[in-house]
Amino acid sequence: MYIRVLGPLSIHHGKVEMMLSAQQPSTVLALLLLNNVRVVPVSELIDEIWKEAPPKTARTALRTYVCHLRKKLSQTTGRTLAEVAETTLQTVQNGYRFVAEPEQFDLDLYHRLQRAGTKAVIAGDFRSAAQCFHQALRLWRGPAVADVELGTRIRAEVAALEQSRMTMQDYRIELELRLGRHREILSELAVLTARNDFHENLHAQYMIALYRSGYRVRALEAFHKIRHNMLHELGLEPSLRLRKCHQAVLTLDPALDDAEVVPLPQRSPANLPEIPALGGSF
Questions:
Q1: 252 — alpha (psi -120 to 50), left (phi > 0) or beta?
Q2: CA distances from 197 to 107, 114, 181, 191, 242 (A)
Q3: Cβ–Cβ under 8 Å, residues 151 and 49
Q4: Where are the alpha helices (DSSP H) in 5-105?
Q5: pTM, full prediction
Q6: Any idea which architecture 2-101 has in CATH?
Q7: Smallest Cα–Cα separation from 62: which of 81, 44, 42, 82?
Q8: Which of 26, 112, 125, 219 could be bridged to 211 by S-S, CB 3.0 to 4.6 A?
């Protein structure tokens, strides 16, 4: 059984796909998967489904949804209902827990690659770190659980994952620049900056990659594009960091040959589920 939540939620066993048509069971499944191995209390599941107005029959209905999910998992995997209840979708205390095999769950693989990449950065092995981050980012097929209606808790989990993805993307691009691969990532950066009008780290990285590749005029154009967008859409000037980058391109500042846009992790990543937040300045 292979489970994917980094994009539309899907569960496959071989060529068989688990199909869910009702929204409520999908919501239950999504919240359990995003909290993989952790127990989700009944109260949180009820709140996620019905928000502030749960019916008197909410607990009974939730048990029905769980039974429905177990039946679907049984049909998909060929295991008995008892096996599914014992090993996969478990009733624990006053809640439920979904236990997915690490090798068969994209979210678990994402976090393992994330931790491995962070450890490699701290060890100074930038090539391995960039490879880990690249593999992790390739697991994404769109917004997390994109086909599930987002309640408060699922929305929070999805927002945290999206921030984690963006941070990892910043780190990977930074690693590629430090490895001298500025020309190789120009096309990717052109797409990323077009999709992220106000992501100043990406635009600074793009400017530096263009400059190092001999495209000084295009680097200046990239700055004026984000400045135009920010002024017209937000009424804001670019950050001091980005303006310094622009000035460095104008003056052919040799510091651009070794410029750091995104500081890389320095502390131990042991037991950290997420990459540390960005900091520092150009």
A1: left
A2: 27, 26, 23, 11, 14
A3: yes
A4: 23-34, 42-50, 58-77, 81-87
A5: 0.86
A6: Orthogonal Bundle (1.10)
A7: 42
A8: 219
